Amino acid sequence: MRSAKLRDIDLNLLVVLEVLLSERHVSRAAERLNMSQPAVSRALGRLRESFNDPLLIRTATGFTLSSRAVLLQSELDGLLRDIERVIEPPQFDPATDDTLIRITGLDMEVGLYFPALVKRVRALAPNMRFEVVRQELDSFPMLERDEVHFSLSGLAPMSAEHSLHRRALEEMNVVCLLADNHALAHAKMSAEDYANTPHGLVSITGRGAGSMEQVLAAHGLKRDVALRLAGFTSVADFLEDSDLVFTLPKRLAERIAEGRRLLIRPLPEPLQAAPVKFYLYWHERYHHDPRMIWLREQFMEVIFTT
Q: Which of 25, 150, 211, 303 could disulfide-pair with 103, CB 3.0 to 4.6 Å?
């Protein structure tokens, strides 16, 4: 536990003390401090009381330092520099920073947004390191537990929302992804056709309904989910030459379909849902961190210039 004297002293008085010990003259100290002479005299009185020492001793030719003041003068400069370092905002230099930055998200979300950021940052901060942390269930508790600095997600937090910040990255429509030889690949697709075909679903937990269930229910329809996956990486392998349909955000569907025998079809008009929004999330503990502020700025530059 800290000394009671430390709690009692006004640290501003130490700044006054440093100048008084240097000038050894109240008027000159007041001029340097841009204070009135009476205010400096009162400060000296408080310092004498706090240190239980006269500090400045009047002589025939002015003031001299007490033995305690001599010791204080030798230590004050370093002490005040240390205090300044504590209260000054932390410095960040991208050119020399070697921090490990941890990020999480589903595989395809990370694949869509993260590589461009790493390439940009590597050019500006070559010593900074990155780690993609496997997302277990909900990523928001990972932010809470300080396991990651950022989360890429199209979801909203179920708890601790007050301690999280986010920036919108992109908004995209939801589409159907299916094999190019699927029965519905080239035919007009009705809401009933969509509901009656077997579906694939990417689910973090592997349990629970997908977002389309509510949309279908509003039209008195229900779909059969024949396959649940924990990530997007293998979606194309399951879709080619199959009777499955996956319902995905458009850019994810485009990424999965690249070089594969797959087609992207719009949802039947009655079932067209609100666009999916993707966000970059971070915790309050890093909201004012200059390193993380810089990284968020780089992320926004990547998103809005590509």
A: 150
pLDDT in tens, 242-269: 999 999 989 889 999 999 999 999 999 9
Which tokens sit at 204?
A: 């973090």
Q: Do the strands 245-249 and 174-179 form a parallel or antiparallel pair, or are they unpaired? A: antiparallel
Is 288 found in the same domain as 211? no
CB 120 within 8 A of CB 128: no
SS (H, E, C) 30-91: HHHHCCCHHHHHHHHHHHHHHHCCCCEEEECCEEEECHHHHHHHHHHHHHHHHHHHHHCCCC
Please name which of 299, 304, 305, 306 lies closest in space to residue 124, comparing C-alpha atoms.
299
Residues 6+ apart with CB under 8 A from 238: 200, 227, 229, 244
Q: Which structural domain range is residue 32 located in?
A: 4-87
Domain count for the chain: 3
Amino acid at 197: T
* Between residues 210 and 46, the one the model is more confident about: 46
Determine contact, residues 271/193, Cβ cutoff 8 Å: no
Which token pair is 286?
A: 């890093």
Q: Mapping DSSP to helix (H, G, I), strand (E, B) and coil, where does residue 2 land?
A: coil
Is the same domain home to 22 and 151?
A: no
**148-166 tens-digit pLDDT:** 999 988 777 766 568 899 9
What backbone phi and psi angles, to 5 degrees, belong to 180?
A: -70, -10
93 in a structural domain: no
DSSP single-letter state for residue 259: T
